[in-house]
Design goal:
This protein has 420 residues and is α/β, with parallel strands linked by helices. The protein is built from eleven helices and twelve strands. It has two domains: 171 residues, Aspartate Aminotransferase, domain 1; 232 residues, Aspartate Aminotransferase, domain 2. The strands form two sheets. Strands 1-7-6-5-4-2-3 form a seven-stranded mixed β-sheet, sandwiched between helices.
Length: 420
């Protein structure tokens, strides 16, 4: 082993496991490299199509009138995601914020929102009104219903029953699993259910929460019939460069509604200062294919080794992946905590800090979170977290490069082995 690995207390057994794993994963890694090349070409051709220039990095303040770079960014994102239009702003503080803006933009009092992937992320509970909040959709007399998945797929029978007996304005589909045990939704499953819904009612708005899923599979939700898709720039498409922001992409009329909800009715996307973020957003998108590729390789490596060590993992190393998230079912509190501590100790920032379970806004249980990242809360940088509840699942995501991810995985696995 390289002597520098001594700083991370890498167990020799773990180093040998990783070396062996990499030999067996080359074919899978090669497919990920091909996917990276596909999206690199897609991003670069979009830059060229809209004649991106250095002058587009200029900053605007105040109202942000005439921000040519901002407008080009939104054309480029629309092109990459194959949508009619997009809203890409640093004023979005998170994916949850972008989702909230979209929901409030498209729903009106008396309308019904239907989730067909069960309970959404914990952070959306107060947005919707699942958990009481005076500013929720529920407080505006917007109704909410949900249909749970059946064996990690959509409940088509129940969906048809609800759509034929109730007036549904908008269907929300959360592709990634959140803090749940279910599998994430692949593009094939998404395409099938969208076709099914549109055959029953063409007018229902289908909104896809695409967080963690961008550039993992070749088609975007818009390409398989979604009306709108939403994501965060401190996840996949920010490429580890954007310090904040989010996007909403889809049909032009719906994007206009979202822009007017974020900004001002009557002004919409024409206002909003870039505040010097244009360069970061564009460089982040440019870097995104590589960052997603590295994240996938890191997830697959950890899945392969932890499966060999007897832990339940989802997805398996050779499964089709819909997102960059790797679930590890530890079954006990100590392994979960120690694994996260191992990730933190191999992070670039605050590596010498001991992470401990603690309360976090929007969540019921204490959360253990390893995220020694350059951007607070960034999920495309190597991180690992999970609620302290049965069955003690770690949700691991990200890594800006595969070598950094590999070091973190070796550190984390060494930590749980050494603590046995």
């Amino acid at each position: 082993m390289n002597k520098d690995l001594e700083y991370f207390n890498i167990n020799k057994k773990v180093f040998a496991l990783v070396t062996d794993a990499e030999k067996n994963l080359q074919d899978i890694f090669q497919k990920i490299d091909e996917n990276e090349e596909y999206f690199s070409l897609k991003v670069l051709s979009s830059f060229k199509k809209f004649n991106l220039a250095e002058s587009d990095f200029q900053s605007t303040t105040g109202y942000g009138y005439g921000d040519i770079g901002r407008d080009k960014i939104e054309n480029i994102f629309a092109s990459v995601l194959e949508s009619e239009s997009s809203l890409v702003r640093s004023q979005f503080i998170s994916g949850t914020h972008a989702l909230t803006v979209a929901l409030f933009a498209m729903l009106r009092p008396g309308d019904t929102l239907l989730s067909i992937t069960g309970l959404p992320y914990d952070t959306l509970h107060e947005v919707i009104g699942i958990k009481e909040n005076a500013s929720s959709l529920k407080s505006y007399n917007i109704n909410y219903e949900q249909i749970d998945l059946i064996e990690d797929d959509f409940d088509y029978e129940k969906i048809e029953e609800v759509l034929k007996t109730k007036k549904i304005k908008l269907i929300e589909i959360q592709r990634s699993k959140g803090y749940s045990k279910r599998k994430s939704i692949t593009i094939d499953k998404l395409a099938k259910v969208i076709k099914f819904i549109k055959e029953i009612n063409q007018d229902i708005i289908i909104m896809v929460d695409n967080c963690y899923c961008e550039f993992v599979e070749k088609l975007s939700p818009i390409e398989v019939g979604a009306d709108i898709c939403v994501g965060s720039l401190i996840k996949n498409l920010g490429g580890g460069i954007a310090r904040n922001g989010g996007y909403i992409a889809g049909k032009k009329d719906l994007i206009n509604l979202c822009a007017e909800r974020l900004n001002v009715p009557g002004e919409g996307s024409e206002v909003g200062p870039s505040l010097g973020m244009n360069r970061e957003i564009l460089m982040g998108l440019y870097n995104a294919p590589k960052a997603v590729s590295s994240s996938l390789k890191t997830a697959i490596l950890s899945s392969y080794i932890l499966d060999k060590l007897g832990y339940l993992v989802e997805p398996k190393y050779n499964d089709v992946r819909a997102d960059i998230v790797q679930n590890i079912f530890f079954g006990n509190k100590n392994d979960l905590i120690n694994y996260c501590k191992g990730i933190q100790s191999a992070s670039p920032i605050d590596a010498n800090s001991e992470v401990e379970p603690s309360p976090m806004p929007g969540y019921k249980e204490d959360i253990i979170m390893a995220s020694g990242s350059f951007t607070q809360g960034s999920s495309i940088e190597i991180s690992c977290d999970g609620p302290i509840r049965e069955p003690f699942i770690a949700y691991q995501q990200g890594s800006l490069t595969y070598p950094y991810g590999k070091i973190a995985i070796m550190s984390a696995i060494s930590k749980i082995i050494d603590k046995k």
